[in-house]
Design goal:
The protein has 211 residues and is α/β, with parallel strands linked by helices. Helices cover 41% and strands 18% of the residues. It has an eight-stranded parallel β-barrel, surrounded by five helices. Helix 1 runs parallel beside helix 8 and helix 3 packs parallel to helix 4 (95-103). It is globular and about 40 Å long.
């Protein structure tokens, strides 16, 4: 099966909304999209995640990538598909999960830390790789592993990453990030999330150039 490509995005930033409730999903997701985010991940260890994903998918404009994180099983993939999710992010490499998500047309970003995991995910047909926790590997560690990977794979740094270290990753050609607590924590007000989102977008433009 051909690898599902990572969609072209002005800002290849995935907002990770761990802990979000269904009630706050429209306002939080709306604020992020308004700021410029076009990829939203709702981890499955959040309250009623599939309902929140369905709400987000239904409200998001064309071109937005809405999906789930912490996807561990093929049953999770089936429920994600039923909710309208098109992004599958996992903390590990499970070839059956990756293959099923790809068969359903989803962008797949499994989590990896070692060359063995990265190459296994690539063989399974992953769209890209979520290097996690990036704060432990650092840009140098990711760069070393990237040297042996298929060049078409999208590489994202996730975990301990914020707008403060975009420049460090830009030096090695990384432009995609998963951003969690630097954007959203449970209980945050919409205005605070919106302000953090705008700060992040401005910082990204400052490092990678505004169009």
């Amino acid at each position: 099966m051909p690898r599902i490509p990572f969609p072209a995005m002005r800002y290849p930033l995935i907002a990770i909304l761990r802990g979000i409730t269904t009630d706050e999903t429209p306002s939080i997701v709306g604020a992020l999209i308004e700021a410029g985010f076009t990829a939203i991940e709702i981890p499955l260890n959040s309250p009623d995640p599939f309902r929140s994903i369905e709400v987000a998918a239904n409200m998001a404009p064309d071109g937005c990538l809405i999906g789930a994180g912490t996807v561990l099983t093929t049953a999770d993939v089936e429920r994600l598909d039923a909710a309208g999710g098109r992004l599958m992010v996992s903390p590990n490499v499970e070839p059956e999960v990756i293959a099923l998500a790809a068969a359903k047309g989803m962008v797949t970003m499994p989590g990896v830390f070692t060359p063995t995991e990265a190459l296994s995910a690539a063989r399974a047909g992953a769209t890209g790789l979520k290097f996690f926790p990036a704060s432990v590997l650092g840009p140098a560690g990711i760069q070393a592993i990237r040297a042996v990977l298929p060049p078409e794979l999208e590489i994202a740094a996730v975990g301990g990453v914020s707008e403060a270290n975009f420049a460090d990753y830009a030096k090695i050609g990384i432009r995609s990030f998963g951003l969690g607590s630097s954007l959203y924590k449970p209980g945050m007000q919409v205005a605070d999330v919106a302000a953090r989102a705008r700060l992040t977008i401005d910082a990204y433009d400052g490092v990678y150039g505004a169009e």
